[in-house]
Design brief:
Layout lengths: L1 E7 L2 E6 L11 E9 L2 H8 L15 E8 L11 E4 L9 H4 L25 E4 L2 H4 E3 L6 H4 L5 H11 L8 E5 L3 H10 L6 E6 L2 H10 L3 E4 L4 H8 L5 E6 L4 H10 E9 L11 H4 L5 E3 L8 H9 L9 E6 L3 H9 L1 H4 L3 E5 L1
Parallel strand pairs: 8-9, 8-11, 9-10, 11-12, 12-13, 14-15
Antiparallel strand pairs: 1-2, 3-4, 3-6, 3-15, 4-5, 5-7
Helix pairs in contact: 5-6
GO molecular function: oxidoreductase activity; zinc ion binding
Family: Belongs to the zinc-containing alcohol dehydrogenase family.
Protein name: Zinc-containing dehydrogenase
């Protein structure tokens, strides 16, 4: 089959690789019908995730059709259309039993496209298929469903839920890329008074308005002053970091009010300064996290019921054979206007 293979920092290739096979009794082999590219894949290509070895098939988000299952798999069968979660869960370890699938001790967690071959391929082996796949409702199309592989549960769980967004609050989302837009979309579920989006790219700020931001401000036009004016000098109740660079994290710690929360979603490849000499006395809570995907079934139900519009994240469509072009378009999002690209076959 064909797959996108990581060849070391800055290097990738769309090439022939062996078809996946069942390795354990809890595995499934899924024929990929839709996949999308994540900012984390770009971090890998930059060398920010050294655990990823050269030769690894990239990708951790997909929708597809089950072709084969191991002897222990009971919840899906060949022919089922499923969402492959970005997080795999053994379902048995201490963390999985607490619903903290991202920290799975039984061989799961974030493994697809990280420590095992991923979804940017014509087929993928999905370990722990009973816990790591979700049946897709018939009225949900592949392009919408694949948005629930990662960005929507990640933004909801790591940004909105960890940030404890409440009705009547001021929420600032720093970074209006796909993850930030998903944070805006899911923060609206909790009826904050206002959502402020911060970014450097005018097109992304315009997208933030379309996704529900009440106020937008360029990152180089003093967002601290804007947020202070909106909140009577207090600052934001919740600041969500959705970029993954030191400057944006440090900005969030300056935007948040005393007693507020900074929820970091971004994947960081460099250290950020933590100004505890200023933060300790202000009762600021800082959270980090890898998504657990416990919210995926709920989000799928909301999607099927028309309560979420996941399809609007998709700005570019490609056949899977044009994977390399899709990576180029997504990597140059500032020029191309790409939010999410979807590859289908």
């Amino acid at each position: 089959m064909k797959a996108m293979v990581y060849q070391g920092p800055g290097q990738r290739s769309w090439q022939d690789v062996p078809d996946p096979v069942l390795v354990g009794p809890t595995d499934a082999v899924v024929r990929v019908t839709a996949a999308t590219i994540c900012g984390t894949d770009l971090h890998i290509l930059k060398g920010d995730v050294p655990e990823v070895e050269a030769g690894r098939v990239l990708g951790h988000e997909a929708v597809g059709v089950v072709e084969e299952v191991g002897a222990a798999v009971t919840s899906v069968q060949p022919g089922d259309r499923v969402l492959a979660s970005c997080i795999s869960a053994c379902g048995r370890c201490r963390y999985c039993r607490a619903g903290v699938y991202g920290q799975c001790l039984g061989g799961g967690g974030w493994i697809l496209g990280h420590t095992i071959d991923g979804t940017h391929a014509e087929r993928v082996r999905v370990p722990f298929a009973d816990f790591s796949t979700h049946l897709v409702p018939d009225n949900v199309d592949d392009s919408s469903a694949v948005m629930l592989s990662d960005i929507l549960p990640t933004s909801f769980e790591v940004g909105v839920r960890n940030g404890n967004v409440q009705p009547g609050q001021t929420v600032v989302v720093v970074g209006a890329g796909p993850i930030g837009l998903a944070a805006i979309e899911t923060a609206k579920l909790f009826s904050p008074t206002r959502i402020v989006a911060v970014d450097l790219v005018p097109a992304r700020l315009e997208a933030a308005k379309q996704f529900g931001a009440d106020v937008t401000v360029r990152a180089d036009e003093d967002p601290e002053r804007v947020v202070a004016e909106l909140t009577g000098g207090l600052g934001a109740d919740v600041a969500i970091e959705a970029v993954g660079v030191p400057d944006t994290f440090e900005l969030c710690t300056r935007l948040v009010r005393p007693g507020g929360r900074v929820a970091n979603i971004g994947v960081h490849g460099l250290p950020a300064v933590l100004h505890l000499e200023k933060l300790w006395i202000r009762n600021v809570t800082i959270t980090t996290g890898l998504v657990d995907t416990v919210s995926t079934p709920t989000l799928l139900e909301m999607l099927a019921a028309g309560r979420l519009d996941a399809g609007r994240f998709v700005t570019h469509h490609f056949p899977m054979s044009e994977m390399d072009a899709a990576y180029d378009v997504f990597a140059r999002a500032g020029e191309t206007g790409a939010l999410k690209v979807v590859l289908t076959r």
